[in-house]
């Protein structure tokens, strides 16, 4: 299992191995899609009280880092 700042976890048997938040079944993708749909941090936290503001922020950081790696790999 790979841990990103002890918040983003990758487990092969959970959500098809997608990056999840603290071992829960909530994925980084879920958070990105909620934000893209217009949900605010506050709305996400209200709907999913098991999440923290830090979870959402780290999901964004993780996604940005993954995108950066992908772009650099393609450019190389």
Automatic annotation (TrEMBL):
Species in which this protein is naturally found: Dyadobacter soli
InterPro entries, A to Z: DUF433, Homeodomain-like_sf, WH-like_DNA-bd_sf
Protein name: Uncharacterized conserved protein, DUF433 family
Pfam families per record: DUF433
